[in-house]
Design brief:
Helices cover 42% and strands 12% of the residues. It has a six-stranded parallel beta sheet, with helices on both faces. It is globular and about 55 Å long. The N and C termini lie close together (6 Å). The structure holds 1,6-di-O-phosphono-beta-D-glucopyranose (B16) and magnesium ion. 1,6-di-O-phosphono-beta-D-glucopyranose binds next to helix 3.
């Protein structure tokens, strides 16, 4: 058991819900229209990073005319509209019983629980899947100026639940999120893609394995 931890901060996309497939479909549509090569490998680089940074990564393979900042923000806005049309289809069934039960057990054990997500759509997603009430606080892309791998979103989350960095553990699926946790002085718990990353402190096969440690 990790004795010094009193707050658990959860990444959203890739940990609690699997909106990564919708990000992929929305970016794929944009990339296809612009003739930019885009596949699952490039998509993996977008995990946890902000919308505008995601666009910059996709544009590394763009060979068309120069794009102004206005054109780039229009593209990002259009991607978001496509993405949100997928989010509209989400329901509480998009959260597994395993996720709900694990959060409930952790709360019963006395941990403070927060969401720490780069997404500006985090509030909307949490409402769609009826998960907002499982958390004491939500820190998201609307509250920060620097996205993961900067620790800002997690530092904000820890503040909201009244925990110091060293009392906080972050659960993440992205390397950028593991870096953010470690650089913020927090414990980094990896799941999914992030388990291959050597900065992770704990690696989970499945989310309910959190109960083995906390
Ligand atoms: P939005 P997370 C991240 O969510 C996604 O992993 C990343 O792919 C996305 O670009 C980012 O949110 C911003 O999302 O366009 O909705 O503001 O993993 O930090 O929960
Ligand atoms: Mg994620």
């Amino acid at each position: 058991m990790e004795k010094n931890i009193s707050g658990l901060i959860f990444d959203l996309d890739g940990v609690l819900v699997f909106t990564d497939k919708y990000h992929y479909l929305a970016w794929k549509q944009i990339a296809d229209e612009m003739g930019i090569p885009f596949d699952e490998t490039i998509n993996d680089k977008l995990r946890g990073v902000s919308r505008m940074q995601s666009l910059e990564i996709i544009l590394e393979n763009y060979s068309g005319e120069h794009l102004t900042d206005k054109q780039k923000s229009d593209i990002a806005e259009r991607k978001n509209a496509i993405y949100r049309s997928y989010l509209q289809t989400m329901t509480p069934d998009d959260v597994s019983e395993e996720v709900r039960n694990t959060l409930e057990m952790l709360k019963k054990k006395g941990y403070k629980l927060a969401v720490g997500s780069s997404s500006k759509n985090a509030g909307f997603i949490l409402e769609q899947v009826a998960l907002r009430d499982a958390f004491d606080a939500v820190s998201d892309g609307n509250m920060i100026t620097r996205s993961k791998p900067d620790p800002e979103v997690f530092i904000k989350a820890a503040q909201l639940i009244g925990c110091d960095a060293e009392q906080s553990a972050v659960v993440e699926d992205a390397e950028a999120g593991i870096d953010a946790a470690k650089d913020g002085g927090m414990m980094a718990v990896a799941i999914g893609n992030a388990t291959a990353y050597d900065r992770s402190d704990i690696r989970l096969d499945t989310i309910s394995d959190l109960l083995l440690y906390f």
